Amino acid sequence: MHPISRALLSALVISPCAVAQSPTTPAGQLPAVLVTGKTTADPVGKVLAAEQAATPGAVTLVDGEDLRQRNVTSLADALRYVPGLWVASGSTGDSTFFSARGSNLDATNYDGNGIKLLVDGLPVTAADGNNHNRDVDPLSARYAVVARGANALTYGASTLGGAIDFITPTARDGAANEVLVNGGSHGQRQARATVGTVAGAFDGLLTVEGKRSDGYRDHQRQQRSGLYANAGVQLGDGVQTRFYATAIDNEQQLPGGLTRDEWQANPRQAQAAAAAGDYQYNVKTWRLANKTSWQIDADSSLTAGLSHERQQLFHPIVYAPPYFSLLIDTEQRNTGATLRYQRRAGAHDLLMGLNYGRMTVKGTNDSYTPGTWLQTPFTRVDNSADSLELFLMDRWQFAPGWTAVYGAQAVNASREIRNTSVPGGVLRNPKADYDSINPRAGLIRQLTPAVQLFANLSRLYEAPTTYELEDDARADGSTLKAMKGTVAEIGTRGSLTEGRHRWHWETALYWGKLSDEILSREKPGAPGTSLSMNAGGTVHAGVEALLGASLALDDAGTHRIEPLVNATLNHFKFKGDTVYGDRDLPAAPKYAVKGELLYRHASGFFAGPTFDIVGARWADFSNTYKVDSYTLWGLRAGLSGQRWEVYAEARNLADKAYVSLFSVQDKAAANAAILSPGEPRSFYVGARLKF
């Protein structure tokens, strides 16, 4: 057995046994659990305790306050310490590839399906499941809840990877007026300011941001500006409504992929075609949303929400004259609605919910000439998708220290592609409907108020996105099937205090078998376009662990050492596939370990090393092109006062050349231009002022 695997499995089995028993919770009362270093005296800790006390599976919370103590410009930075996720950035800040429990192991750097993203409980993932072109700013979150895999039933999510809900701050929950600035290597400079007010029944909060970067490769500049606002009104006893508005203008150049020889010779260069074709990724986003909550009585509540978003995409992505060029010029519109009713009845805590989404994509796929930007449409796009998710869940504390969590989700989804050729007028119109009932059952054993064991068995189901349906590799007019499967999970989480020392952990072991998994591979000779297929059988399994401590070095606890390790082992394979046999799935590493070892002083000073240990990955389904493992080292330090804090961070101190992400192919040639280099040696500083 691999040494890391042996250590994590030992933690999974031994950790709860090291904690002394204490009185269990009375029947009918959901327990409060102290986990992952947070305490229920902390408002964010209360949220995490409630989420984990009611979920028989892996749930991690990312605290927005922690993100402000290091350089965070992307989801890859923000989700660094979430086990079970593989998140990588290889272009500029908003170009992030993310996978949870093996979701999205195909269209690397192209699409982001497999995880449902929400902001304040309302979807920003489109109705068809894609996160393409999404703009989620992690620094605009007070905290984020990451529910992996089938544990996202709480959100009604029908995805292989689960859901992430980014909760934004409000003036009423104590968000401070503040200014944040940071800058450093590769021309990075970022600034944001937040102001808020509370006046009787009204409160409002406004954040404006600006970000610029030259990038660590040629043709990698980015400029982004954003506005985030929310305003709430207390309408009466137990009733409140809140409005949200977002506007983002993001423009970034794309440097393209390199061959292995190009990467080894000069990883900072751009792909020749990307520079000549001026590849870009420009998105303008506008979003309005409302959420109204009614606390009916002490035991029941009702929440309703609506959201509408428009995204204008300008995306030159392929330039190979005189044969082919591609510029995507489309507008995507998404409308979402959610309804949740919760009621406690004795030992039962019932949750019923509904999610509905409607998406349209209209515009053209064009050939183009860079510089002059002369566009000639060759396809008119008119795609649409609907999605309805109904879910019912009961948390039943049937005995002291025991909670059964069971429920089901019903999914109804439709997809339609209407691509009309120009000038011939030939219509390509694949369309399909998808329906499924997905049950789930789990068990939570409360060993002590601070320690849990959990287990669950769940059905997974995910319909194809319109991008996948549009890129179906078959030419017989049939449509892709939805992927489906079953996953089992066991784990433990909790915290332990012994004198002046504190430990916390969350570990999970899962195994899932899928059929008809939807996988895409890059189309040879046409970078940025893909071919999709249904695989036969696949297996998704792994071990996830987040382990941390705060150890006092003196009797007063003035000096402390705080280690934190996020370790993930992945086992993603084809199972008896007619084409790929039992080969490994590409894109995700066999293992990934990220951590830090900080010294903290009671004065607010901290400093220490960081590290990343990432295993090898395959870049193709045929397992002929391997991307090597790598190890990175860094340092971070900071100092905080009552109304201010500063930090400094150094990354990749050894200036290691490594591959961050890549495009997946069927069988990659030795000279395939698919590699995106990772960040070289870099230095950043930042400051925060509250007023």
UniProtKB/TrEMBL annotation:
Protein localization: Cell outer membrane
Stated name of the protein: TonB-dependent receptor family protein
Topology within the bilayer: Multi-pass membrane protein
Family that this chain belongs to: Belongs to the TonB-dependent receptor family.
Source organism superkingdom: Bacteria
Pfam hit, one: TonB_dep_Rec_b-barrel
InterPro entries hit by this protein: Beta-barrel_TonB, Beta-barrel_TonB_sf, Plug_dom, Plug_dom_sf, TonB-dep_rcpt-like
Gene3D superfamilies per the UniProt record, alphabetical: TonB-dependent receptor, beta-barrel domain, TonB-dependent receptor, plug domain
Signal sequence, start to end: 1-20
Organism: Pelomonas parva
Keywords: Cell outer membrane, Ion transport, Iron, Iron transport, Membrane, Receptor, Signal, TonB box, Transmembrane, Transmembrane beta strand, Transport
TonB-dependent receptor plug domain sequence ranges: 53-163
Domain TonB-dependent receptor-like beta-barrel: residue ranges: 216-653
